[in-house]
Amino acid sequence: MNRPPLLWKFYIAAFYIFLFAPLVAVAVFAFNASPFPSPPWRGFTLEWFTGTAAVFGKPGVLQDPIWLTTIGNSLKVALPVALLAVVIGTVNAWLLERAQFPGKTFLAMMMLWPLVIPGVVLGISILAFFSRVANTLEDWLQMDLDPLRPGLSLVVLGQLSFILSISTLIIAARLRKFDRSLEEAAFDLGASRARVLRTITLPFLRPALVGAGLVALLMSFENFNTTLMLVGSDAPLPITMYGQMREGATPAINAVSLLVMLAVGGIASLFALTSKSQS
Amino acid sequence: MTTAQRLTLFLMMAPAILWLGVLIVLPHVEILILSFSERVAPRVYQFGFGNYLEFFTEPLYWRTFARTAIMSILVTAITLVLAFPIALYIARVAQGRVKAMLLLLCLLPFWVSELVRTLGWMMLLRETGIISYMLRMTGLADQPVELLYNDGAVILGLVYGGLLFMIVPLANALESLDPSVVEAGYDLGGSRWTVLRRIVVPHAMPGIVAGSIIVFMLTVGNFATPVLLGGKNGLWFTEQIYAQFITRFNWPQGAAFGMLLLLLSSAIVWAGLRLTRQGLGTTLRQA
Amino acid sequence: MASSNDLDIVRVTKQFGAHFAVNDVTFSVAPGEFFSILGPSGCGKTTLMRMIAGFENPTSGDIRIRDKSMIGVPANRRPVNMVFQSLALFPMMSVGENVAYGMTCRGVGRAEADERATRMLERVGLKGFGDRQVTALSGGQRQRVAIARCLVLEPTLVLLDEPLGALDLKLREHMKIELKQLQGTFNTTFAYITHDQSEALVMSDRIAVMNQGRFEQVGNPRELYHNPGTPFVASFVGETNRWQGAVSAGSNGAVTVRLPSGVSLHGQGQAVAGDALCFARPEAIALASDAAGLSALSNRFEGRVSAVLFDGANSSLLIDTPGFGQPVRAVLPQAGALAGINVGAPIHLGWSSDAMKVFAA
């Protein structure tokens, strides 16, 4: 495979243009001084970020309670998901790499399974099951169990169902590389079990824990399919965006998207940095 | 094992058991049962195959199902063809920094939400969109052109969404190909095409299978892209599930559709793995 | 029964299922002693070491340190510290933090721990290395940090699990001497396990040779080398020639062995009948260019040099000798007429009956 043909190089260039065209379009038109997110270009403005409704009749993202609430909702989901994904993922990783028990291979297979279930199916199955549980319990206890009804708490559970698989994989991969004699050495030098965990094992796992947390944060923030089925009246960001895109939106949606891109870019580069220091 | 060790093991297993039991296994049992219950009177259900019969007798349902399956296969094939030269270039031609850059540039768009990417395509393709505007400006069209809301737009959006998940496993598989094997292929008189067909492609097979399985799964289960880019003509099976569950509140029917989608997706994954005798774990790890 | 030993191992057995990893082993290590356990991999020496450290529990028997039984005492409460084969330096800590780790675990204040760590690093020749990352050290420096980390706790006993295994040959030779000197200056009791007989011979006051879970022989390096108690010790410790035959006559320790070829050899041993194994060190094989030079020896043969294995002071010759299945190995003389001998040259060889040990096979 000596010199690559020109046609091939041309194709590569075209491919990358294709890859970035939609993102560039979204980003550029966030600054268009027009009430519609479409050409022609009517001049540069920051109205769609910081403006009140004075100029275009619709407020910019940072002034609009709808967008601010929806971003808040996304955070209310993403933070617990990330935290639980890391904590439970660590426990699961320990099970897979350290514990010996019958049926371990089966459990390991089961942990991968959620990744091959379509997100919509995960969503409806959790919706249906929790509704039945809620109905049964409410009849029995004679009280309302709102956390089991569609809403942010159910979205957290729905997203966890598959994000846990990913965090478990990330943390288990790191734990597999751990030299157990480090733990024995610390124990031998007089450390208690708890101290070994705190001073040796967890510091070693830290890059993976941070990485798994960031990936969980991203996946939660962007999840659409599962969330759509479980969402109640408080919509996280992708759901609000979906609604606005169907109805036709102002360039505020471009502004939100650009903010999301920047935030995601920031988180992704953080993740890239931690995974680099990991190797 | 001492009692303390047993207790520790049990405590450590509890989260996994709860997760897999309460969020995966029981919910699937629930929709399986739900899919076999028929409504005979308001609030009265009994066991029956009605929801599945409904699927086969109502042409809209099974046609949407077949359409989803066929288009997903088409999307997977197009993604593979488009991604292969890129993956080959990244894995075998590009060196050092260029290589890292190309791979990173591939990854970037996919860190961004699916909805943002879809928004981008909507802005490019719609009647008042950028491409239509540019066609008029350059005089190639004399009136606005609607590129959105057709099968082409849906396929475009889905292929775009699947590319990364094809490129990464392909590049990983091609990476491990020993350059001397390729050189030996040429040395023994192979043309560029035969070397590609007889040596490079077979070597990349694990990556091809892994990438195809993932792209197919993601495509079949996609919701936003076909609905937003296809509009009324999107007709994706996930939309039917959504309609039954959320709009019509006919959960048993929706559950039956969900089971069918799960069956389709699992069948393709299983067939793909069997065809190439690979494990699920190794395949997922490659992704 | 009070004991003045640092370590007493009393009839310790460790069973994994039906397999005896350690089988009824008893020995003692005196204060300040450098004690080595030498054996091939899989002989049970690592299991024995891990039982002393507290990572495994013996199936039966007792482990006593300064006369206190360690059965049921967890590893973090034993006055024993271990240098691991991988060294197990904590990569997330600096050199100083590694050395101070054990003290902070024991509740020593931060400042005092740091100060003692600094002083210890000085004593092992790593002055000013406290703030470095362990990944930035050379192999020999890492070795010293691992040992300093143990010594700073002033343990009764330091266990070393083949710590030189990962080093390259040259550094290993150097570290052997350094380790021995370190042990001398600190006067701490060392228990060292290795599969490398040269490490054990160079450093140890006493060596236990272990095979298949049992101790074959315990003694100082010279005893083991010159008076091996079993065929295993004879062949495992040091280079040796080994021949198999049948006892044809034996009394009062003098044995005659007839090889399958009919050649008779005269040696020392307790075997009186049946199959026998004979061992003779290469350096015990005397060489001469004519038969007259060897007339005082009870075993005399004639052969032809089949290979010259030149390795400086360790050079040897392989001599094809009629009657012996394999070439006889002899040390190449460093001076004299034979120093320049070449392949194919005829040569006379011989050894005294004292130089050949005979064991019942």
TrEMBL record, chain A:
Task: Please give, as recorded in its UniProt entry, the membrane topology of this protein.
Answer: Multi-pass membrane protein
Tell me the Gene3D superfamilies matching this sequence. Answer: MetI-like
Keywords, in A-Z order: Cell membrane, Membrane, Transmembrane, Transmembrane helix, Transport
| UniProt keyword Transport present | yes
InterPro entries, sorted:
Bact_Polyamine_Transport, MetI-like, MetI-like_sf
Q: List, alphabetically, the Pfam families matched.
A: BPD_transp_1
Q: Which GO terms describe its cellular component?
A: plasma membrane
**Alphabetical GO biological process terms:** transmembrane transport
Chain ranges passing through the membrane: 12-31, 77-95, 107-131, 151-175, 196-221, 252-273
Subcellular location per UniProt equals:
Cell membrane
In this chain the ABC transmembrane type-1 domain maps to 71-271
Name the major location. membrane
Q: Does the keyword Membrane apply?
A: yes
Q: Which domain of life is it from?
A: Bacteria
The entry's family comment says: Belongs to the binding-protein-dependent transport system permease family. CysTW subfamily.
Protein name according to UniProt: ABC transporter permease
From TrEMBL, chain B:
UniProt keyword Transit peptide present: no
Q: Which InterPro entries match?
A: MetI-like (IPR000515), MetI-like_sf (IPR035906)
Where is this gene product found? Cell membrane
Instruction: Report the principal subcellular site.
Output: membrane
As for membrane topology, the entry says: Multi-pass membrane protein
Domain ABC transmembrane type-1, by residue range, is 65-272
Q: Where do transmembrane segments lie in this chain?
A: 7-29, 69-90, 102-124, 152-171, 207-231, 251-273
Q: Does the keyword tRNA processing apply?
A: no
| One Pfam family cited in the UniProt record for this chain | BPD_transp_1
- Name its GO BP terms in alphabetical order: transmembrane transport
The entry sums up its family as follows: Belongs to the binding-protein-dependent transport system permease family. CysTW subfamily.
The name under which this protein is listed is ABC transporter permease
Native organism: Microvirga brassicacearum
UniProt lineage: Bacteria, Pseudomonadati, Pseudomonadota, Alphaproteobacteria, Hyphomicrobiales
Automatic annotation (TrEMBL), chain C:
Q: What is the protein's given name?
A: ABC transporter ATP-binding protein
Q: What is the lineage of its organism?
A: Bacteria, Pseudomonadati, Pseudomonadota, Alphaproteobacteria, Hyphomicrobiales
Q: Does the keyword Methyltransferase apply?
A: no
Any one GO CC term of the record: ATP-binding cassette (ABC) transporter complex
| Example GO biological process | quaternary ammonium group transport
Q: Which UniProt keywords apply?
A: ATP-binding, Nucleotide-binding, Transport
Per UniProt, residues of the ABC transporter domain are 7-237
Its family?
Answer: Belongs to the ABC transporter superfamily.
The protein's matches in PROSITE patterns, at most eight in alphabetical order, are given as: ABC_TRANSPORTER_1, ABC_TRANSPORTER_2
Any one GO MF annotation of this record = ATP binding
InterPro entries in the record: AAA+_ATPase (IPR003593), ABC_SmlMolc_Importer (IPR050093), ABC_transporter-like_ATP-bd (IPR003439), ABC_transporter-like_CS (IPR017871), Mo/tungstate-bd_C_term_dom (IPR008995), P-loop_NTPase (IPR027417), Transp-assoc_OB_typ2 (IPR013611)
